[in-house]
């Protein structure tokens, strides 16, 4: 996807990577084992070995213990692992006293400021979708600073803080530009793509939120204007509502999209409809020193325990994890195996119109490896 790595560690010497596994809730417990199976099935020529650490987090863990994200989980991730896979979390739609999302907390505690979500059609003909959505991961409305109060007339008002900082906007803009350049480098080497040159689309709503979204927009533009190493990138903008419209009508025009937290969340989930299902869209939560692969789907309680959850988003997230750790070659093999499965279209889970089980899809992809 990007070849941007937090650890440029790839070599011919044998290497053991220690990977944290955090299934979380719902189908997370069914798809995270798929990521482990794929890593264990990699070609021995890569000289990669893996050790796995099973870790706890999630709403179910909160209901059992009163803690959604144990301190032990965070400490082990920081000190004993090279990276991690996170499955899914069940987030209640109404306030539950003492509970907050463990993946949001992990992003903050580990400094995972970027959520990188490639969205690409795998069909062998008429490829119309090939974009990466880069979502700022630490602020915006997700700072979760809310209050509710009663007005003089007895009615209630709720308020939420939307926080945008120059620091966070600069670093998300920079990594988005780096990804745009790396995608162009792959195209220069012959990688198939819809795009002939790098494009970065900054998404915002500064026509209404002139201070907060205005700061996001201007910070990225100023960084671009003062760093000539990114001058080959075409910097464009889209107001978020126009972005949604054009993404569905003309997805082929977008290359790399960068957005504040809320817009990036909505855009990346919506973009999954362009490629068939949330079950095939991966993501990576990326910081300066750590990365967590995370499928974009939720905990899917309606299919939990049925053995039909699509493992492809997790498998692609596993490849993203390897890529950001500096292991592009085995990651590319995983991508190719997944694409071959999708192009053939025989072994597929119900969300893609098939009748196969989770494990049957995993086995088919391993066979292609």
How does this structure look, described?
The protein is α/β, with parallel strands linked by helices. Helix content is 37%, strand content 19%. It has two domains: 1-112 and 287-369, Isopropylmalate Dehydrogenase (3-Layer(aba) Sandwich), CATH 3.40.718; 118-134 and 163-276, Isopropylmalate Dehydrogenase, CATH 3.40.718. The chain has helices at 28-40, 59-65, 71-80, 102-109, 166-188, 212-225, 240-249, 261-271, 312-324, 328-344, 358-368, and strands at residues 15-24, 48-54, 83-88, 114-120, 130-136, 146-150, 156-160, 199-204, 234-239, 256-259, 284-286, 291-293. The strands form two sheets. It has a ten-stranded mixed sheet, with helices on both faces. α6 links the parallel β8 (199-204) and β9. α1 (28-40) crosses α9 (312-324), α7 (240-249) packs parallel to α8 (261-271) and α9 (312-324) runs antiparallel to α10. Keywords: Amino-acid biosynthesis, Lysine biosynthesis, Magnesium, Metal-binding, NAD, Oxidoreductase, Phosphoprotein. It comes from Wickerhamomyces pijperi (Yeast).
Task: Give the helices and strands, then pairings.
Blueprint: E1 15-24, H1 28-40, E2 48-54, H2 59-65, H3 71-80, E3 83-88, H4 102-109, E4 114-120, E5 130-136, E6 146-150, E7 156-160, H5 166-188, E8 199-204, H6 212-225, E9 234-239, H7 240-249, E10 256-259, H8 261-271, E11 284-286, E12 291-293, H9 312-324, H10 328-344, H11 358-368
Helix pairs in contact: 1-9, 1-11, 5-6, 7-8, 9-10, 10-11
């Amino acid at each position: 996807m990007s070849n941007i790595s937090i650890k440029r560690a790839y070599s011919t010497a044998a290497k053991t990577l220690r990977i944290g596994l955090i299934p979380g809730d719902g189908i997370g417990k069914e798809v995270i084992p798929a990521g482990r199976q794929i890593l264990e099935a990699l070609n021995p020529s890569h000289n990669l070995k893996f050790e796995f650490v099973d870790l706890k987090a999630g709403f179910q863990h909160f209901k059992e213990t009163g803690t959604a994200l144990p301190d032990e989980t965070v400490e082990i991730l920081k000190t004993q692992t090279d990276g991690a896979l996170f499955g899914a979390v069940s987030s209640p739609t109404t306030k539950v006293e003492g509970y907050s999302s463990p993946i949001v907390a992990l992003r903050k505690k580990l400094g995972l400021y970027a959520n990188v979500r490639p969205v690409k059609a795998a069909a062998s003909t008429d490829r119309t979708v090939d974009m990466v959505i880069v979502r700022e991961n630490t602020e915006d409305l997700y700072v979760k600073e809310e209050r509710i109060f009663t007005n003089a007339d007895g009615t209630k008002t709720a308020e939420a803080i939307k926080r945008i900082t120059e620091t966070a906007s600069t670093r998300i803009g920079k990594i988005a530009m780096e990804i745009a350049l790396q995608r162009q480098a792959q195209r220069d080497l012959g990688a198939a793509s819809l795009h002939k040159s790098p494009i970065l689309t900054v998404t915002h709503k500064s026509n209404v939120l002139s201070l907060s979204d205005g700061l996001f927009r201007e910070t990225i533009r100023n960084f671009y204007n003062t760093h000539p190493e990114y001058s080959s990138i075409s910097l464009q903008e889209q107001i978020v509502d126009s972005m949604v419209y054009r993404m569905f009508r003309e997805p082929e025009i977008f290359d790399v999209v960068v957005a504040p937290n809320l817009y990036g969340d909505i855009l990346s989930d919506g973009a999954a409809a362009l490629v068939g299902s949330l079950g095939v869209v991966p993501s990576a939560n990326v910081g300066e020193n750590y990365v967590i692969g995370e499928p974009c789907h939720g905990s899917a309680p309606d299919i939990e325990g049925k053995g039909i959850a699509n493992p492809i988003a997790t498998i692609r997230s596993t490849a993203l994890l390897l890529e950001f750790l500096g292991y592009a070659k085995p990651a590319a093999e995983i991508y190719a195996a997944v694409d071959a499965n999708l192009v053939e279209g025989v072994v597929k889970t119900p969300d893609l119109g098939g009748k196969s089980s989770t494990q049957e899809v995993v086995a088919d992809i391993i066979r292609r490896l």
